[in-house]
Amino acid sequence: MKKQEIFSAEAEARMNSRGVKPTAVRLLVFSALHMAARPVSVADLEEALQTVDKSTIFRTLTLFLEHHLIHGIEDGSGSVKYELCHGEWDCSVRDMHLHFFCECCHRTFCFRDMPIPEVELPEGFAMHGVNFVIKGLCPECADK
Amino acid sequence: MKKQEIFSAEAEARMNSRGVKPTAVRLLVFSALHMAARPVSVADLEEALQTVDKSTIFRTLTLFLEHHLIHGIEDGSGSVKYELCHGEWDCSVRDMHLHFFCECCHRTFCFRDMPIPEVELPEGFAMHGVNFVIKGLCPECADK
DNA sequence: TTGATTCTGCAACCAGGTTGCAGCGATTTT
DNA sequence: AAAATCGCTGCAACCTGGTTGCAGAATCAA
């Protein structure tokens, strides 16, 4: 069994466990998300998967979001970025981490090892999600 | 001197001190931002200031942003929200605070007294700004 | 095989954001 | 005061990311 096939099998299992039928296109999208070094936008995926239509990518991402296979990050670039949830069976707030958006090269970095600090909300507010993005310059851009 | 005039004079002084010429329209926009109970979108301002054109509002906000009279919040609603900087002469990261976006009524709340927790970035990353938004249900919507 | 259901691609649409341009008013210069 | 200059504003058009309607293709069940 080749490495690719192993991954594919894992992806399939993951989708099945979340009640998402693993079609060919969905596996492609999942794989592209897995390959990506950083969170990607719909446009990035369109670029990477030239054979797949924008609306299909969009609907696939929506589906993945609903089933907690991925989460979205609003980095302020105007387009939402997506990345696979990496917690094993869950994608809770506690699982979330910090992101960094470079205002120069417009790349978004994941700081996987930097969890979102816990916050105490005022009485009555219920937290469902969280979006914590730092903006500035990445090392490459700061150097110039 | 009426209350309104006093405020107007303050607004003018504020703009002058930041190198922004206080035109009639700009004072209107500034005033609308001041009145608003929470961060507002361009659409909100358009609604509030029916006589002023969308593009003028947009350019005014851009100008205010550049001159640190206001800051923007990406709450994930799709449209950026703006609010006056309330620190006296500055609008630094340290001055920023947490926001809460209600997924039901789509309002954005300011938690003025909850500063953004300090974070230690990896070597080489330079922080210019920060966006920390909690999503969930506000007390009113949670009740239903 | 047939019928029902889901998935996908295409094209069109929508909204927020942005820009080009011309007119207007304020300001400065002569 | 008239002329030249400059910035501010409104209008209309545009762009881009996101979203939807629809019809054909693929999948699944009987």
What's the total count of β strands of chain A?
5
The strand order across the widest sheet of chain A is 4-3-5
Sequence stretches where pLDDT stays below 50 over 5 or more residues of chain A: none
Gross morphology of chain A is globular
Helix content of chain A: 25-40%
The largest contact between protein chains, plus residue counts on each side, is: A-B, 30 and 30 residues
**Rg value of chain A:** 16 Å
Total number of helical segments of chain A? 5
Looking at the chains present, what oligomeric state does this protein adopt?
homodimer
Sheet having the most strands of chain A: 3 strands, mixed
- Secondary structure class of chain A reads alpha+beta
Alpha-carbon distance between the termini of chain A? 46 Å
Q: Could you spell the SSE succession of chain A in H and E letters?
A: HHHHEEEEEH
Identify the notable features of this structure and list them briefly.
homodimer, globular, DNA-binding, alpha+beta, 24% strand, 5 strands, three-stranded mixed beta sheet, 144 residues
Structure write-up:
Chains A, B: Belongs to the Fur family. Chains A, B: This is Transcriptional repressor. Chains A, B: Keywords: DNA-binding, Metal-binding, Repressor, Transcription, Transcription regulation, Zinc. Two copies of one chain form a homodimer. The first copy, chain A, is built from five helices and five strands, in the order ααααβββββα. The first copy, chain A, is of the alpha+beta class and 144 residues long. Chain A is globular, with a radius of gyration of 16 Å. Chain A has a three-stranded mixed β-sheet with strand order 4-3-5. In chain A, helix 3 (42-48) packs across helix 4 (54-66). The termini of chain A are far apart. In chain A, strand 3 (97-102) and strand 4 form a beta hairpin. Strand 5 of chain A pairs antiparallel with strand 6 of chain B. The structure holds a DNA duplex (30 and 30 nucleotides).
